[in-house]
């Protein structure tokens, strides 16, 4: 048809093949659901092209299980409630339930599931023998009397095509994995992705012999993420020989992520001890990994004079795009006219430098000249750097840099950090700074528009206020959609909060802010009766959440504060009352425990549609008789939440 002529061409006239491709390109769940409401044809097309699905709701309500997503290949069952309980134990015949899931989703090759006991995996894995990727989730302790590796045996028994295994959120012993991998050599050989990076500092890292046993059995690994022990005082620490043998065992690695178990700790480091790793061996390791694209070595112990080894990365690992170094010293001297050390890695697009005590402004500027493609940069605990050096760095990379993290910076407070980012203020999309307000009064503020900033992450000490945030120069962020706030410190050192509120009400200046992560898991206090002159965590919780009722949030992840002496993280009355007043909140995930009657307070919020209580911390309270939401409590709350008498505006 000639251009400019009128026609009665309708959207339905688009060929089905093209329309199907259009639907396949859309991945956002709510958008796809909205598309499915247009007409019956679009509904069927959306369901037939959906490849990924996360199930929520109570597993006992089988009549609500959808059977129209038969093309789904990635299925996430880890959010089903009652959360944290054995998935199939709600039924007298759990095999029937497993078969029903297989019938509803016959094409699944990727599965995420909460595995409280081996029976769950035994029944589910047998239903999908073609599984290629599996992620296991468990925050509760393993049964101490269970044989070594018994949790994983059903998976290896029933899934011969397994190529990717993720146990980063699965509470188990480090000695559980090596014997199982050795017992199934064909599966071990086919594994290309193994994630054994534990996300909690209380868990032990893999010892040297365990890591070498795993890598020797999996020679075709392309991605390996692992928590290790780098402390030379410990038995089984990672040494030069360990790293060299690992590289020989797995020469095809494109991603290598090794982190000390203390790297996940909330405690900020005291840089004293040296690791048993030399720069000469590092050079040999890099030479044996020519396909490396992403490298993380978060050692948490000093590795000195590393610039000669890092120079080899540019030639020996030409495809390297992302690099993270923790406690590497001497990464760039910055004294010679040509670049040296890490500044020679010209292909880097992401660089993270953590606790490099000898990194200077000159070295940082040299890195900005050498690594001219950087789009992401993180600097943590590098105490010699100044605002001037950081400003020069961002100025040199103003055409590419869009993601920056500045943390634990001795010479920069919040205002200075933002001033150092002035050259990329109109480009930056993601930002992290520490809320250090020292000397903020009287300083020149950068009260300007951060037009493209979509994600903001903040660290703040317990007892400090969030109110100076807008005064520091971040008051105008029209595109900000998500904020993460990490609060850390010991409430027991302070009798009570020194002000009425933490300052969440100041977030109302961000009109498009809809998602927040409020992480108070690093806050320690008294969950029960506090000593004379101190307040318990309920008062601190009121302090942290006051003002949240005025926010525009529709999704909140809230990690409660904890009492480490009794291993308790729970929701108190002030939090329940304040969260019930959040007039726009649709999704609420509480990471801790709670009493049933406090959860019932949340029903007063008319917009809430999805509420879940997750005990996702090590170890989850297996026998908590005071605060744990039990199966019956959870079911009663969900029934009330989903009751037809509650009108939830969409």
Automatic annotation (TrEMBL):
Name of this chain's protein: COI1 F-box domain-containing protein
Biological source species: Gossypium arboreum (Tree cotton)
Residue ranges of domain COI1 F-box in the record: 14-51
Signal peptide range: none
Gene3D superfamilies (UniProt xref): Ribonuclease Inhibitor (3.80.10.10)
UniProt xrefs under InterPro entries: COI1_F-box (IPR041567), Leu-rich_rpt_Cys-con_subtyp (IPR006553), LRR_dom_sf (IPR032675)
UniProt xrefs under Pfam families: F-box_5
């Amino acid at each position: 048809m000639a251009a400019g002529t009128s026609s009665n061409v309708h959207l339905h006239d688009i060929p089905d093949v093209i329309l199907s491709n259009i639907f396949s390109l859309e991945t956002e769940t709510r958008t796809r659901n909205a598309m499915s409401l247009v007409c019956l044809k679009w509904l069927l097309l959306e369901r037939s092209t959906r490849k990924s699905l996360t199930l929520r709701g109570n597993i006992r309500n089988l009549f609500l299980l959808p059977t129209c997503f038969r093309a789904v290949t990635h299925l996430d069952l880890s959010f089903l409630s009652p959360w944290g309980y054995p998935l199939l134990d709600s039924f007298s015949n759990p095999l029937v339930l497993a078969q029903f899931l297989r019938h509803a989703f016959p094409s699944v090759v990727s599965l995420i599931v909460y595995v409280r006991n081996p029976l769950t995996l035994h029944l589910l894995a047998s239903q999908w023998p073609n599984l290629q990727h599996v992620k296991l989730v468990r925050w509760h302790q393993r049964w101490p009397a269970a044989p070594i590796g018994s949790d994983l045996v059903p998976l290896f028994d029933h899934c011969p095509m397994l190529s990717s295994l993720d146990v980063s959120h699965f509470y188990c012993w480090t000695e559980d994995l090596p014997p199982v991998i050795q017992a199934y050599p064909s599966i071990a050989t086919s594994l290309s992705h193994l994630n054994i990076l534990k996300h909690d500092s209380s868990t032990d890292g893999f010892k040297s012999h365990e890591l070498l046993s795993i890598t020797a059995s999996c020679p075709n690994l392309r991605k390996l993420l692992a928590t290790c022990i780098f402390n030379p005082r410990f038995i089984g620490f990672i040494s030069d020989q360990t790293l060299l043998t690992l590289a020989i065992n797995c020469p095809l690695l494109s991603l290598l992520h090794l982190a000390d178990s203390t790297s996940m700790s909330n405690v900020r480091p005291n840089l004293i001890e040296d690791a048993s790793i030399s720069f000469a061996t590092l050079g040999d390791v890099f030479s044996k990994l020519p396909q490396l694209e992403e490298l993380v070595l978060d050692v948490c112990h000093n590795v000195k004079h590393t610039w000669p080894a890092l120079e080899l990365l540019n030639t020996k690992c030409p495809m390297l795009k992302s690099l993270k170094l923790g406690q590497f010293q001497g990464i760039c001297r910055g004294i010679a006219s040509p670049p040296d050390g890490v500044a020679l890695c010209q292909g880097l697009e992401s660089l993270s430098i953590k606790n490099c005590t000898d990194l200077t402004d000159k070295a940082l500027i040299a890195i900005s000249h050498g690594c001219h493609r950087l789009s992401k940069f993180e600097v943590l605990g590098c105490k010699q750097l100044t605002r001037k050096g950081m400003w020069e760095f961002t100025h040199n990379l103003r055409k590419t840099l869009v993601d920056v993290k500045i943390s634990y910076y001795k010479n920069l407070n919040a205002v200075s950090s933002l001033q150092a980012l002035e050259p990329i203020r109109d480009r930056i999309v993601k930002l992290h700074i520490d809320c250090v307000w020292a000397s903020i009064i009287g300083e020149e503020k950068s009260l300007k528009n951060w037009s493209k900033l979509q994600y903001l992450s903040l660290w703040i000490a317990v007892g400090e206020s969030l109110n100076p945030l807008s005064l520091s120069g971040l008051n105008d962020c029209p595109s900000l959609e998500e904020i993460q706030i990490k609060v850390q410190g010991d409430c027991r050192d302070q009798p009570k909060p020194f002000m009425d509120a933490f300052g969440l009400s100041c977030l109302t200046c961000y009109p498009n802010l809809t998602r927040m992560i409020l992480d108070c898991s690093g806050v320690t206090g008294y969950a029960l009766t506090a000593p004379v002159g101190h307040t318990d965590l309920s008062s601190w919780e009121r302090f942290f959440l006051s003002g949240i009722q005025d926010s525009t949030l529709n999704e909140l992840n809230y990690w409660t504060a904890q009492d480490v002496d009794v291993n308790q993280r729970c929701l108190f009355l002030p939090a329940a009352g304040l969260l019930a007043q959040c007039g726009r909140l649709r999704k609420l995930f509480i990471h801790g425990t709670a009493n049933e009657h406090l959860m019932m307070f949340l029903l007063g919020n008319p917009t809430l549609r999805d509420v879940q209580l997750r005990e996702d911390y090590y170890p989850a309270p297996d026998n908590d008789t005071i605060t744990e939401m039990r199966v019956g409590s959870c079911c009663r709350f969900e029934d009330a939440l989903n009751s037809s008498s509650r009108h939830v505006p969409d």
